[in-house]
UniProtKB/TrEMBL annotation:
It comes from Litorilituus sediminis. This is methylmalonate-semialdehyde dehydrogenase (CoA acylating). Keywords: NAD, Oxidoreductase. It comes from the Bacteria. PANTHER family: MALONATE-SEMIALDEHYDE DEHYDROGENASE, METHYLMALONATE-SEMIALDEHYDE DEHYDROGENASE [ACYLATING], MITOCHONDRIAL. GO terms for molecular function: methylmalonate-semialdehyde dehydrogenase (acylating, NAD) activity. The keyword Oxidoreductase applies. One of its GO terms (biological process) is thymine catabolic process. Residues 16-478 form the Aldehyde dehydrogenase domain. Belongs to the aldehyde dehydrogenase family. Pfam families: Aldedh.
Amino acid sequence: MTIREVPLIIGGEKVRSKSDKWLDVLNPATQEVVARVPIATPEEVKAAVDSAEQAFKSWSQVSLTNRMRIMLNFQQLVREHTQELAELVTLEHGKTLPDAEGEVGRALEAIENACSVTRLQLGEMANNAATGVDTYTLNKPLGVGLGITAFNFPLMLPAFMFPPAVACGNTFVLKPSEQDPSSTIRFVELALEAGIPAGVLNVVHGDAGVVNQLIESDAVKAVSFIGSTAIGTQVYNHAAKHGKRAQAMMGAKNHMVIMPDANKDRAINDLLGSAFGAAGQRCMANPVTILVGEARKWLPEIAERAKLMKVGPGTQRDADLGPVVSPQAKQRILNILNSGVEQGATLLVDGRDCQVEGYPDGNFVGPTMFTDVTTDMDIYTQEIFGPALCVLEAETLDEAIEIINANPNGNGTSLFTSSGWAARKFENDIDVGQVGINVPIPVPVAYFSFTGSRGSKLGDLGPNGKQVVSFWTYTKSVTARWFEPDHQDGSAIHTTISLK
């Protein structure tokens, strides 16, 4: 297999980096090197920012309609290249092809929301706010935006960032994960093919030094991050220190509550899919379930169904989950799982020694399930980001709500029930930003905003929906009064601030 060299994209062109530091990109199922990605040089990072800054002068003047038309072209190209994009995701990330195809679909939703910019970027107006005075607002682009994305959704996460930012009239520099960059680069190439002008959208690869240089650039006005809590906190604080608008969508410990009146088969299947899909490498996965009352009797059946889930390479379409992204990720996951046994949890399903025929070097971890879990154990307090499920038990819905609200994270939570009363109580009493009712992964469609909360988020505005336009624009208020050409106001000088 030919090993691809992943390019930078600067000024509308693919650029081979002059860096002397390149990283291998591995197929997680085989450890085969499939690509090499550079750590961009300081000169290349500066060139990307300069290109975006220069392009902003003209791009910010392009009409809403023409920006929308480019987004319409983009979504059509992504739709036509779904299979190609999904195969690149599977090759470097490891998620199953059906899951990767689903990711393309979620990316399309975000692009389609950006196609609504002609509606979302409208200002407000009050005619005769005072006598003869009109007041109106303009939602203006900020300048150069910066996006920093994690490995787990190499298409969807960039789609949460640059399409709305660019549609609002900003220019952009994207720093994707170096672990699976090829699908992101192809995604950006399609955006350029759709008509985004040279310099409006740029891509550099790199480490913390590259990120810091980007954040510290005077031209960068806003920073969007999606990834781990530790790195997200550093990025957010560094951005704030340098006067940037910032948002950081970070780690999670999501809970699913199952009531005894829930549809049993649907609840169990959705629980297992949300806990183990994508090998648990989702910030919206459900790594904790709370079985309430008589639902506790379902525990043996949940464990038996978990044991039947199929682990295999992402190219194997009947596999339920593929490998985790890297050997380092696998070892970190195993260390946390081992701590669960050491700290006294009961291991009902053990996927630690998962072997997949024909793939002896793959980063495979099978479905793993613990019961007798307490909230001070590492398997509960840490984000495992692997195919692991902790089972807690509660007598009542109130007790389950109390457990969830005591957890510092607030990305998402779900309740499975047939009771409208229980559902309404849950959605009102729970202190979590995204709630699912009989929905296991409560990420809303992209014309609603992503509203993770508490320890899972820094910044007051999230991606997608209406909030995304608020994040990528600033509001300019205009108060205007116009006089007749021959108007005479006498000699009085007005020293009050009143407009009447």
